[in-house]
């Protein structure tokens, strides 16, 4: 399900009326489903200082969520019977 530019603008307008984190998250997710070319084209319409702030905020979230990925990987490895020590030994080869 792809949103048109109008639908995305309408969603943002609704966000201003009733700031729902879930709606904004869905909008960001939908933006992530767009082609790189389309994202770059839209980003050219945004002031550079705003783009820098957006990128900074996303980098902060990525850093804070690294732990989630590590936990998922650790759980998957444990389910496969691989201990942290075995993984460390493998990585040190």
UniProtKB/TrEMBL annotation:
Domain (DNA-binding protein H-NS-like N-terminal): residue spans on this chain: 36-89
Pfam families: Histone_HNS_N
InterPro entries: H-NS-like_N
Name of the protein: DNA-binding protein H-NS-like N-terminal domain-containing protein
